[in-house]
Amino acid sequence: MFSLQEIRSLNELELAVYNYVISNIEKVNHMSIRELSEVTHVSTTTILRFCKKMNTDGFTEFKFKLKMYKESQEQSFPTEDASHMIDFFKKINNDEFDSLLNQAAELIVNKNKVIFLGIGSSGALGKYGARFLSNVGKFAQHLDDPFYPVPDGYYDSSVTIVLSVFGETEETLKQVSRFKSMSSAIISITNYETCTLAKLSDLNIAYYMQFMKVKNEYNITSQVPVVYILEMIGRKVQRLLEQRKTK
């Protein structure tokens, strides 16, 4: 029901509605438009605009399609987590998303240095991404310490791949700004393309997974999409490198 193109068309207020809806489908099906307006802290006009961007004529039709979507998910998949994962793969099954991956691969192949940057779990994924790229023939390094000193000139002809769920971590943003000032191209992989990190990047790839937190502190949003994106970029890099060898 929610295509990647539709989600990317949402502004920040409409995205707040989307986040609530995707996390509370059952509740929304029994809400009035005014009740949804109150819990999402947006106007009813914003909700109607959101419904229109979801290709429905109004809130009533949107709820009907939402109900049909929920029922189809329950019939197809045994668990809620699986349904969200399958929904991700459906959303990215299009030429637009493939084009983003191609652009990332081209940028990586055309640079002499590839650096992965991330903190916490994103740092661990950065290490995996660096190893995967190295395995396919493009040497890459990872940094999980945003304060790690790097000599002048190191980032010449480089691309930095930055991983972050929120794209708002202060230390990461400072390091990205520093890398940009040293002429490093920035590719970011984030959950939303409206975050600050995405706006600082030369290329952003957003995956729009349901945000999840435990104990109001620990982020457990699925990172399976990030692994998939890294591996798909790596395979495209491998093909480009092989094509260059045959020329």
Automatic annotation (TrEMBL):
Residues 104-240 form the SIS domain. InterPro entries: Homeodomain-like_sf (IPR009057), HTH_RpiR (IPR000281), RpiR-like (IPR047640), RpiR-like_SIS (IPR035472), SIS_dom (IPR001347), SIS_dom_sf (IPR046348), WH-like_DNA-bd_sf (IPR036388). GO terms for molecular function: carbohydrate derivative binding; DNA binding; DNA-binding transcription factor activity. Pfam families: HTH_6, SIS. Keywords: DNA-binding, Transcription, Transcription regulation. Residues 1-73 form the HTH rpiR-type domain. GO terms for biological process: carbohydrate derivative metabolic process. PANTHER family: GLUCOKINASE, HTH-TYPE TRANSCRIPTIONAL REGULATOR HEXR-RELATED. This is MurR/RpiR family transcriptional regulator. It comes from Bacillus yapensis.
